[in-house]
């Protein structure tokens, strides 16, 4: 998508700067967290211990190509900051033809870090659908049952005690976060409309000897299941594994924005447009500074 046409020389210069910064972030991600530029800017966190070592007691879900739903990659359906998880939080996106409202539940709105679990769910579903179409697996179920260690491995986080607590908190927020997409009167329909949860439910199936989450069952919502399984070319894009090592929520959002535009010609966004679509509550001038820091 393109931002509205700019009317001033200043805006044009800032847009050119933004395009350059987006390109720089893409180059850093391509080079990976070992790149000197990434180390200097602090874009990436350090990978967990044994990140590249296979775990023979864990299924190979962590080796599945990482997929993201195409339709929601250009807006934030979550909060970027871990600290912004207020009960009943609302983000509203006014886009051409549609209004998209994201509402948090009793445990607050899901964060972009919580969304890593959704990426794992979509990746699993896309891979199972591919195997099914090649006659190598049964039709994918709507219930996805990963172990907590699988989730940590896939999302490239350590298996420490705090990770289990964060997993439980993330599942609560994901269950309570809903998206409403309403078509503007008289506008041409460009997105599916209705009410959409990020996950349709979650249940702890087993616990570890220490009482922490062992295996969890996550119910894939109908809208996400259909988007992946009902199309010859699923509505998903591959995400670089180093995405999970990006420390800042803003860096992750900008990557998603740029990833959706990649290969589709040039998508031009102003700083104001990126600010609006990110759902950030920061003033625009401070947001622009933040964007410069991550790119």
TrEMBL record:
Lineage: superkingdom: Bacteria
Protein name from the UniProt record: Replication protein RepA
Matches recorded under InterPro entries: Replication_initiator_prot_A
One Pfam family recorded for the sequence: RPA
């Amino acid at each position: 998508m393109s931002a509205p046409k700019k009317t001033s020389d200043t805006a044009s210069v800032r847009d050119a700067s933004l395009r350059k910064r987006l390109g720089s972030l893409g180059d850093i991600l391509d080079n990976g967290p070992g790149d000197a530029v990434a180390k200097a800017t602090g874009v990436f966190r350090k990978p967990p211990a044994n990140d590249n070592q296979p775990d023979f007691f864990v299924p190979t879900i962590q080796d599945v190509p990482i997929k993201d739903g195409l339709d929601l990659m250009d807006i934030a359906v979550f909060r970027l900051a871990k600290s912004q998880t207020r009960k009943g939080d609302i983000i509203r996106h006014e886009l051409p033809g549609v209004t998209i409202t994201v509402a948090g539940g009793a445990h607050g709105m899901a964060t972009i870090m919580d969304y890593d679990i959704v990426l794992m769910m979509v990746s699993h579903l896309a891979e199972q659908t591919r195997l099914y179409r090649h006659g190598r697996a049964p039709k994918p179920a709507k219930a996805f049952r990963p172990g907590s260690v699988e989730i940590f491995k896939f999302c490239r986080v350590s298996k420490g005690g705090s990770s289990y607590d964060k997993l439980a908190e993330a599942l609560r927020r994901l269950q309570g976060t809903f998206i409403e997409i309403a078509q503007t009167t008289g506008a041409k329909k460009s997105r599916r409309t209705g009410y959409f949860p990020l996950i349709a439910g979650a249940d702890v199936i087993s616990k570890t000897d220490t009482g922490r989450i062992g295996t969890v069952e996550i119910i894939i919502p109908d809208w996400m299941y259909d988007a992946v399984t009902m199309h010859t070319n699923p509505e998903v894009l591959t995400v670089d594994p180093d995405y999970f090592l990006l420390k800042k929520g803003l860096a992750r959002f900008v990557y998603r924005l740029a990833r959706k535009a990649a290969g589709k010609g040039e998508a031009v966004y102003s700083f104001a447009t990126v600010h609006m679509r990110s759902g950030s509550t920061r003033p625009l001038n401070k947001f622009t500074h933040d964007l410069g820091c991550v790119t």
